[in-house]
Amino acid sequence: MDGLVKGPLLNLASPFGDPLRHALFSLFRKPLSKVLRLDTLNSMYCALQGDEADAPFIDRALDMLGVRFELDGQPVTRVPKTGPLVVVCNHPFGVLEGLILVRILRSVRPDIKIMANFMLGLIPEMDELLIEVDPFGKADSAKKNIAGLKASMKWLKQGGLLAVFPAGEVSSLKMKKGMVADPLWNPMIGRIIRKTGAAALPVFFEGRNSGLFQALGLIHPKLRTMLLPHENLKHAAAHPIRVALGGVIENERLAGLGSDRDIVDFLRFRTYLLRKEGNSRSPFKAIVPTRSLEPIANSRDKHILASEVAALPDANILIRTGDFTVFEADAFRIPRILREIGIRREETFRLVGEGTGKPMDIDAFDDTYRHLVLWNHAEREVAGAYRFGLTDEILAKQGVSGLYTSTLFKYRPGLLESMGPALEMGRSFVTPKYQKSYQPLLLLWKGVAAFVVNNPKYTRLFGCVSISGEYSELSRELIMRFMERHAFRHDMAGMAVPRRPPKVRRLGRIDFSLPESAFSELDDVADLVRDVESGRSIPVLLKQYLKLGGKILGFNVDPDFGNCLDGLILVDLLRSDPKVLGRFMGNDGVARFLAANAATDGVSRLPGSGRPGPRPLHVAA
Predict the structure, then answer these.
(1) One Pfam match, by short name (predicted)?
(2) I want to staple 613 with a disulfide (CB 3.0 to 4.6 A). Which of 404, 480, 580, 602 is the partner?
(3) Residues 138 and 30 in one domain
(4) Nearest alpha-carbon partner for 465 in 586, 546, 569, 351
(5) How many alpha carbons fall within 13 Å on the CB side of residue 545?
(6) DSSP SS3 for 412
């Protein structure tokens, strides 16, 4: 076995030069080797050398160590099979993560190199995989690191995959944060990515070394380094190690961040987003005790519901297409359909951790609001619905308390009146049967648009967009942070005060700094949430409101609706992009709507606007 280690893999050499201390150290070498479990590792390595099995060395080593791991996050099949790719990882253990990473990535592509320090370099069987660097600042470190940088860039320019641990050392206790994490990552990795045009893939290894390891590190870093063999053996057989794969980040996205430091900080943030914390699916502390769920009510016979729809005047019909009809009506005209809507709401909302817990989701506001319904006349069933309140009529008859959102937010005097006629939107849903297609939601939005075109004085939409408890605490905070930065009406701050404001906690536990450009577009936060939620992105309804130019006025936690997070959003349709409006209104509808409002000249009546809004743009049919 030429080129392999002859004798022990690991030796405990004396750090002392003078004879007396060297002699004293020799007395403790053997017991210290046992404590550090060097003898165990050496025995295992000898056994592996004698093993003539055909399996790759890394597979045999992991099996002998008893290492088990569980893949989470994005499927490994989404790792690009060709092209330059830098896989960036946190470094919690020391050796195990490098071995595990090779086993995972080799299932997708064979052209793998690892940029690693001396620990993996001690194993001759790893030589063909390694590009060695030295993070410890020895006399020859600079020369070795320059050579490693050149070799890494050459490998990537050839289209290879390079796995890196940018921290350069094992995760350790950060006293200020009170947490174990990697130190700042080396900006050299950002330079490699910029110079080679490589994409990046964040990978997070769940776990940490022991309290003893962390305590020794506070005394001196070399003391914790001595403990690495013991720590890695302990973790090997303790429990399955969770490995979370993020989404691939294209080079164009990374290059646009700015400096090498900006790139590597962004990648560190994306990696630590993959960390899983206990109780992450109970985002904000429950405000009320857990409710018992009553059985959902039974539906009426379909022919009874169909007869109620058939009796509607043509003026209530907004859209007919294929098997679907979209209509709007008040509670008086459709009492049986409204009951069915309540059943389907409750059924749909419970599936995402919301709902009232009652047999149906019906409240007093349903009696005074109008209902926009997506009806499948072939199946004779409700496929989805919206409810909306005509604020000019409700405020005139009932005052602010007549609006549903007033139960969640305290409105300052003058805000609602300054909006002029508006539609308060809410309780939107598409039943589970129809959620596989985008068409039902699109038809609901087209129905809203048709109502607005027919009633063009309603130039503003507002209401609560829910982010359900199915989203982790971290995802909800990411969405909140993005909207507070880029979609918040600061001129209206304090005009809508949440009755139960959410507590932001999770992001404060991530040790990170980010350039502003890392978080500036809707797609940016969608990518972040997709990593955290294993593929699921931000709510579709929220995306649509933001594309229409929606602005957030505040956030509230709704204890009567599964503690979901509600964002109060305002859309001024006269300021929306006409091309986006056209998807829902059609070009002719946009032209009619804007023409009807041309007399206002697009001037905002909202407080704090500071200047007139843009003149409405007319779109030809």
Answers:
(1) Acyltransf_2
(2) 602
(3) no
(4) 569
(5) 26
(6) coil
Residue 166 has pLDDT above 70, yes or no: yes
Listed as own residue / partner, the contacts of 305-311 with beta carbons closer than 8 Å and 24 or more positions apart are 305/336, 305/337, 305/340, 305/380, 305/381, 305/382, 306/377, 306/380, 308/334, 308/335, 308/336, 308/337, 309/334, 309/337, 309/375, 309/377
Say how far apart CA 436 and CA 456 lie, in whole Å: 32
User: Does 169 reside within a domain?
Assistant: yes
Q: 200 with 137, same domain?
A: yes
- 397 with 541, same domain: the answer is yes
Higher local confidence (pLDDT), 91 or 289: 91
Q: How far lies 224's CA from each of 12, 36, 115, in Å? A: 14, 11, 21
Element (H, E) at 104: helix 96-106
Q: pLDDT band at 532, cuts 50/70/90? A: confident
d(CA 211, CA 229): 15
Q: What's the chain's length in residues?
A: 621
Task: Say how many CA atoms lie within 13 Å of 425 toward its Cβ.
Answer: 29
Q: What is the pTM of this model?
A: 0.77
In this predicted structure, the answer to whether residue 288 has a pLDDT above a threshold of 50 is no
Written as one letter, the residue type at 229 is: P
Structural domain containing residue 115: 56-272
* 91 within a domain of the structure (yes/no): yes
End-of-domain residue from the set 32, 52, 72: 52
The answer, yes or no, to whether residue 525 has pLDDT greater than 80, is: yes
* Statement to judge: residues 359 and 501 lie in one domain: yes
Is residue 385 within 8 A of residue 427, CB to CB? The reply is: yes
Per-residue tokens: 307:
């007869």
- DSSP-based three-state secondary structure for 211: helix
Q: What is the pLDDT of residue 309?
A: 96
575 within 8 A of 549, measured Cβ to Cβ: yes
* Sign of the four-CA dihedral 92, 96, 97, 98: positive
The CB-side HSE value for 357 (13 A sphere, CA atoms) comes to 11
The secondary structure of residue 320, as a DSSP letter, is E
Q: Which two tokens stand for residue 262?
A: 């900006």
- Dihedrals phi, psi of 489, to nearest 5 degrees: -85, 85
Same domain for 327 and 255:
no
Residue 612 belongs to some domain of the structure:
no
Q: What are the structure tokens assigned to 74, written together?
A: 């994005």
CATH number at residue 379: 3.40.630.30
Q: Is residue 496 scored above 80 in pLDDT?
A: yes
- Say whether both 247 and 379 belong to one domain: no
As a whole number of angstroms, the longest Cα–Cα distance in the chain is 104
Q: Indicate whether 373 pLDDT > 60.
A: yes
Residues 253 and 374 in one domain: no
Domains held by the chain: number: 3
Pairing of strands 551-558, 409-411: unpaired
Residues 262 and 405 in one domain: no
Structure tokens at 247: 């989404």
Q: What is the DSSP string of 221-250?
A: HHHHHHTHHHHHHHHHHHSPEEEEE---B-
The sign of the dihedral angle between the CA atoms of 75, 81, 87, 92 is: positive
Nearest to 71 by CA among 278, 236, 242: 242
- Of the chain, the percentage scoring pLDDT greater than 90 comes to 49
Q: What is the CATH number of the domain that holds 198?
A: 3.40.1130.10
Evaluate whether 382 touches 337 at the Cβ level (below 8 Å): yes
